[in-house]
Amino acid sequence: MQTKEDLRQELSARWQELWPQGVKPGRPPMFDGAGRAAERLRRLKEYRMARVVAITPEPCLLQARINALNDNKSLLATTPGLKQGLVRITPPDVPLPLRSRALRGWSLAEAGHQVRLPTSRPGKAELLVGAALAVDRRGRILGDGRGLLDLTWALLIHLKVISAETPVAVLVHDYQVMDELPDEPWDLWADLVVTPTRLLRMAGVRRPTARLEDLPGRLASLPVVQAALGQALG
Q1: pLDDT band with cut points at 50, 70 and 90 for residue 193
Q2: Superfamily designation of domain 4-229
């Protein structure tokens, strides 16, 4: 099997050719049908039952973020690279006509209420939604190599926003679903893989055991991580 880095380079080139949407090479692509995948997510019981949905900031998840507010849910958004931490956004925070612009990229940091650790608590979320370069039929996720989805999971677990039982959904194109991907013990797996045409439910999904304290130095040095580690949680 190819190494993760070799796969990232190969798939990144393939997705850039298929979907030349201006997304930085190596990042989860802005795939055709991302809006349809978001609509499919909307039908899932895990989504319908969630009052708060945590969603990562990739462009392909814009419609999922918009839908969360349109469906009268609160959105716990991670900012790009988690450099500005977490933002809690409620439907009244962003008027309907402004959602397409306000819920993307760096605008997320100004769209709602920034979670200022260690003094404020982000509350709970019942679903985590992310993006990927690829995912396989067991739920193993190939990210862009920065470890940000794994970091998001570890951060939200540490803050008690989610638990090990909280479902993880990944939105991808059908082309991004592979037969098998390599993984490491600290990698997060998806419970739900949502494409424009289908839903894959995974059984026997493994959860990472690494704690926030175990992160590599480049992630542990992020201000949001340092603030979370300094927060006394009850």
Answers
A1: very high
A2: NagB/RpiA/CoA transferase-like (3.40.50.10420)
